[in-house]
Input
Amino acid sequence: MTATPPRTVAVVGAGPAGAFCAMELARLLPGTTVDLYDRDERGPGAGIVLTDEFARRLRSHHPDALNLPPAAYATWDKTVTVIDGERITSGAFGMSGISRHAFHAHVRELAAQHPNIRLTRHTVTHLPEQADLVVLADGAGSELRRQHSGRFATTLTAGRTRYLWMSTPAVLEPCFLLKDSGPGPLVVHAYPHAADESTFIVEADPDTLLALGLLDLPAPQAEQRLAEVFRSELGGAPLRARTTGWQPFRTVVNRHWSHGRTVLVGDAAHTVHFSTGSGTTLAIDDALTLARCIAAHHDPLQALAEYESIRRPVAEQAQAEAAQSTAWFEQLCRGGRLEGHQTVFALRSRRALNTYSRLRERDPEFVARTVARLAGHPTDAEPLDIPLSVGPVRLDHRQVTVERSDDHCVLHGTDGTRATGLIVDRAPDRPLPGIDFLAVQAPPDGGRVTRCATAAHIRSTAQLPVALLVDRELPRDEANTLIAAARTDLVAVS
Output
């Protein structure tokens, strides 16, 4: 590769990542020809999600980027979680659902209007040899990346749960539906993405799907069965599958984002679980950053290195956060006690930035209802300061110190009482005479969800209070977050 700006760039994939990479290159390098390849077959439909903040940022350089007809999108500021019929409202600030097909068609049309972009409807099966630079923006299942997976050091990790991505000709409110099916819960992620259509993703543990006879059903029968299960929520509307059968979500990681003259962007480079709603945003930001780096450097190798140095930390942070979200939904889908507002608080706080104090500031009514449910009455107290009885010990504060000995620990009350705890790594399968609480050691590493996964699972099935054992006192805000989310009943320093 010579140290001159590329005269031709081939962009494989004309979804948002490819189209915006092409448009930004055309804007910044009007002397460069961009070949934008749109595959012969369209991908699955339904909707995508964007935040208002991202939309404003995107329009600053591409004013027409989101100029879609009103019928192609929907906006909201609240989300409803329905847990076995109980409706719990919480904030979802400045969000839009957009028709995937409408958005993709719109950005392809915008790209085709640039005089130095050549849009071609063609499925590319080999790396274009004539281009000075090749951008692979052809999605998580990129065939060209697969052909050269050794060069990129690609790994794909499948999650435990299975999902079926569907749409419905009904305008649903943005919601999570948690329905106890008997063998285990069915979890729905739903949101409107047009004036007459909504996205409807059903996620469940494979054992639950197998017990319900859903796992291997052909798509038409699965659509009918699920439409019947969720008849009241859908208002009788049908469902249409947009993916082929029940699939695990596959996390794509590439140790190298470029090799020679070829570079990955968007889902071809990295994927994040759909529960975070950030995949399209990450893909477009990748594309814009790559184009700007190419325009800023005469040497394409320097451009690709700078692009990766900027975007890799962002993607890794997003994937770490998505891993916590994935872990939370996998834990939820394995079953256990659902606790209304506290379950919704756990859903909201699976993201590291959503602590108790931040949610209380942004959504005070929801947090107040959650704390009231925890206390059994309205209160101004924080979760840490809600009294708790542990055997004979009455606690006025839920972060305590315990004495530890082998597989037991002792909690002393201020009045001379004492409670005995058993240190466990799984829920007991029998009564435990003389034991007042269960203690679970928090692993030293991991995010909020993974560090508390065992404690939360045991708490969801056990009849005794659960203490999360930590090596040092937690910050008050984090301890409040764990207790409000029912990940533990108390925090114990040993």
Q: What stands out?
A: The CA atoms of residues 440 and 455 lie 6 Å apart. The radius of gyration is 25 Å.
